[in-house]
Amino acid sequence: MAVPIAILDCDLLLYGRGHRTLDRFKLEDVTDEYLVSMYGFPRQFIYYLVDLLGASLSRPTQRSRAISPETQILAALGFYTSGSFQTRMGDAIGISQASMSRCVANVTEALVERASQFIRFPEEEASVQSLKDDFYGLAGMPGVLGVIDCTHVAIKAPNAEDLSYVNRKGLHSLNCLMVCDARGALLSAETHWPGSLQDCTVLQQAALNSQFEAGLHKDGWLLGDSSFFLRTWLMTPLHIPETTAEYRYNMAHSATHSVIEQTFRTIRSRFRCLDGSKGTLQYSPEKSSHIILACCVLHNISLEHGLDVWSSPATGQMEQPEEEYEQMESLDSEACRIRRELLLTHFS
To answer: Structure pTM?
Structure first.
């Protein structure tokens, strides 16, 4: 007689009918040090996520024992911060690795649904001015609304025929376009672009480009490196500085832009599922993109809760493919005029 294994519950098979996942693990029974070592975050942060995501994670289920929001969040944080479905982690919270995978999917979608709540440019005039002041305090660069760059995250090959995700190092990846403020908080994150696209192409096709072209973010500019073209709203370094003012401008530009590079290092260090140390993300490009975005949301929430963006050591980061691009000055005459005026006004 055939046994209908497909309909059996994974946790039932692993632990037996008497097992109750809801009673397996209680946050109040362990120390903050244990939670940080296993799941990357302290108790109060996890409680906040339970309040934030609880309604989304308590959706109706046909399973006899729904996994609590608290347990789902712990499983997801464990994966995000370790990069693997470890047996000991599943044992600690009382669920199988198959159930951990479902928890990661649930929590990821719940975080992605709230991305616009936590990753956004400020709109109030006072907040925008504070943003500029913070950047100016770094190296004297005025008018900066954010620093922009791209970073690659390795993923498994979607299929043998699809080469759009193969980057310049021959690896499959997503090219993620991000903007951050002077503290390292993300203001924009587009995580779905194929790895074969150069940074300038990603920006040209991005929603961010449309927003700035439409004038939604006025009276300032982003700072980007030489992989981007100079725009009226995007200041790039001078290819060959000649005057003292040009050297000063480039030095201030470099010092300010370095914030996004440090932010990338911190995110990959905190969320080891992104750094490549445990292998590539074993998901489709769409699901991988959502996992990256979920980690970006958690990154910003952690900043709001006082978990210093620079507190984690930058180790094990994925080697980034170097862009191959021609150093070309923009043909945008208005953008060139704005940069010249910036040089004369602030760096001469």
So the answer is: 0.87
